[in-house]
Amino acid sequence: MLVLDNQAPIVAAIENYFGTFDFEVHACAEVHQAIARLEENRYRVVIVDPRLGATELQEGLEFIRSVRNAQPESLVIILTAYKTATIAEFAKQMMVSVIEKPVPLPDLAQVVFGALDKKRPG
Fold this sequence. Notes:
This protein is an alpha/beta fold and about 120 residues long.
């Protein structure tokens, strides 16, 4: 799992929670770090907050587009406290889920595991 979010408490909570389900979580606070991870690893799940402090929304959305191009099989989830019409339309075009912060971790896990189950053959 790759997590791109600059809020350390959220990242730590996701790492700890999904670690109990044997997910290896790679956390990045900046887009360039996440791009490097994406080039080095394959991810089943990518969770992205496209608004990273001073980072323009467009940079976060471009990262999601990069994930879709490089690893189209990955489950991509936008995790944001600022769901705008721009984000909603982008998510629809990219066929990614949007979850608004704050979200209880069991609810996030339900989305992740539900989507992964749908991708399993059989």
